Amino acid sequence: MSFLLDPPLLAASGAVTGAALPDGRPQQIAGAVTVGAFIGGSLALYMNVPQIVNRWPLFGSRSGREFMITSGIARINERKITKAQHAGALSLFALYPLWFELGRRVVKR
Questions:
Q1: The whole model's pTM is what?
Q2: What average pLDDT does the segment 67-92 reach?
C-alpha cells in the first residue's frame, strides 16, 4: 500500500463494490471495511510497525514509510522529514474514503 498505489486500488474496490452489491447498507459496510483495511495497513506501513518490518525489501524500499511516500521509486531520508511533511502525508489518509466513493459512483453511471 502506498500513497501512489492506494487511490487506484481504492477506486477499483469501490467500482467492484458498486457493481457487485445492492445499494444501501451492504455497500456502506463493504466500503467501511475496505477503507478501514487500507487505512490500517497503510498506517502500519507509515509507522514502521515491527511485525511487518521485513516486507519493505519486497517493494524496493528500506522502510514502510519510504514505501508509503515513494512506492519504492525513490529513496528518502526518514530522519529529515519535517512535521509539516508528516502532516501532509498523513492528511492523504483523509482522501481514502473519497477514492473508494469515486470508484463506486463511476460504476453507477
A1: 0.86
A2: 81
Distance from C-alpha of 67 to C-alpha of 31, rounded to nearest angstrom: 24
Contact between residue 68 and residue 89 where contact means Cβ atoms under 8 Å apart = yes
Q: What is the CA radius of gyration of the chain?
A: 15
Q: Is 20 helix (H, G, I), strand (E, B) or coil?
A: helix
* Per-residue CA distances from 99 to 14, 50, 59 (Å): 8, 28, 23
Distance CA(33)–CA(65), nearest Å, equals: 23
